Amino acid sequence: MARRKDIDGSMSVPTFYGKELRWQREAARLSLEQLVAGSFYGKSHLSDIERGERRMPLDLARHVDEVLKTNGFFERNCEDVRRARRGPHAWYFEKVLEAERHAESIEEWCPSTIPGLLQTAPYARTLVRSAHPTASDEEVEEKVQARLGRARLFDDDHSTPEYWAVLHESLIIDAILPPRDMAEQLDRIVGLAERYRMTPQIIPRKCGAYPLMAASIMIMAFPDAPPLVYTEASYSGDTIDDPALVKQYRKAYDRLRAVALAPEASLAMIKAAAEDYRNGKQPDRLE
Question: Ranges for the HTH cro/C1-type domain (predicted)?
Answer without folding.
Answer: 20-74
